[in-house]
Design goal:
This protein is an alpha/beta fold. It has one domain: 3-Layer(aba) Sandwich (Cytosolic phospholipase A2 catalytic domain). The strands form two sheets. Strands 1, 2, 4, 5, 6, 7, 8 and 9 form an eight-stranded mixed β-sheet that branches. A two-stranded antiparallel ribbon has the order 3-10. The longest helix has 32 residues. The radius of gyration is 19 Å and the shape is globular.
Length: 346
Amino acid sequence: MPEQGAPRRLNLALQGGGSHGALTWGVLDALLEDGQFLIDGVSGTSAGAMNAVALAHGFAQAAREHKDPLEAHRAGCELARATLARLWEGVGTLGSLTWGIPLPGAGPLLGMMSHWLSPYQTNPLDINPLRRVLEREVDFEALASARAPQSTTVPQVFVCATNVRTGRGEIFTGKRLSADAVMASACLPLLFKAVEIDGEHYWDGGYSGNPALHPLIYKTDCADVLLVQINPIEHQGVPDSASEIMERMNEVTFNAALLSELRAIEFVRRLLAEGKLDARRYKSVRMHRIDGGAVLEPFGAASKLRADLAFVRRLFDLGRAAGQDWLQAHRADVGVRTTVNIADNA
């Protein structure tokens, strides 16, 4: 068991879900304030990718200013909190995550338009208000070069986007990490043009990994993964209106890849426990989860496009409370045991 008070290693897996990602901001704020975890890797998709790069930006800044690892960790926690706060406060000034259609009219209007027109007609200038907020707060050039051997306090960041041509998820990390990669990860194809990177075009990473867990398994030494989930897996009742059916279809679609990876993790864990796999070659992953789906359900899927400051701050408060509850219940379990029954959730 880790020494009391010593930072424990933890990987973070952050789902996307539009402005509902502000709930994840609250969770991260609670974890960073606690300061008891050394974040080894962060995998994020869409809003989860924005949270991931903002968090890592704070730690990269601290690593440049502090040579002592413990001091860099402490400073990184505070700088990451500040970066996340500025990012989401900026999102909260947009009013809507669409390209100029204010809520509450955005959802129905965009739904009708998408049946007849693509973003190549409706948004020919490819306006995405999130880009300027993101580029203002995150130094991608510094972030891409920050994960050096001497900067072990800076988390590795893995951003998932879906390659339009191949249909496969692609992970952007290290030197390939950029604002374009994050915008690709958050590119809803009915709202924005596909994002071109190195001659390939990308859509939202949620279609192929929301978030992708495999980079955390294969690219880090840490065996503990905390999944911050903001898309509900289960849904009570049968949707019967067109909008409800579409919302549920999107929830199922954006959870499919995640559930597949969770099943694979549980399968490997079981085989390792039975002695049927070589423990020197396979990692037994300890999964943890903060499930924000139930908290977010009353707001409805349409609110994912909402980006007013009051709403963003409300979700932050809900996420922070969820993070504090998880810390109270499971802080001591990290590095020791899994705290979510994957078999019941995948």
